[in-house]
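User: I'll paste a sequence; please echo it back and then give the predicted structure.

Assistant: Echoing your sequence first, then the prediction.
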Amino acid sequence: MFEQLFTFPSTAAKHESAPYAEERGRYLIHCAQHGYSHSTLKLYAQELLWVARKLSVYPSLQVTLAQIEAVTENWTERESYCGKRLNVLWTHRRFIDVAKAWLRFLGCLQEPSAFTPFGNYLDEFVAWMKHERGLADTTIEHNKGGGYDNFFAGTPKRKNHSRPFNSPTSMLS
């Protein structure tokens, strides 16, 4: 893949000899199959080269976002290679974005599981619906809406919500 992107054999060789060359090549092929332009693929290849160099301290590539952030602390090597001062914010953001996309593609990014507020109560409620009410799993899944976030999305709204509450008798009329 690198010899198709770069015209100079020395540049392609530099990319092929860097850490995780096979994994980077597979990701670039994946991006090409999804219609990324040649210039974008070259940019990604260059960024992935730096990502691979920085993440080479993790041989298995099983990393968290915090570990990716930790390797972005020092840009002096990259600045000396480029021969100019870098826009640190832009360089940092692009590095993180490309690294996350590549590691997700490889299945190596260790992302924290989503926290569900009151999840233990909702689990108990699901168990109650199943065992006490005898509802089918498909009914429970349908009511959950595919996730706890939408669990009560289908509950009906209170009628007459615009009528003010004046007294207990006003509710009876």
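The first helix runs from residue 2 to 5. The CA atoms of residues 28 and 45 lie 7 Å apart.
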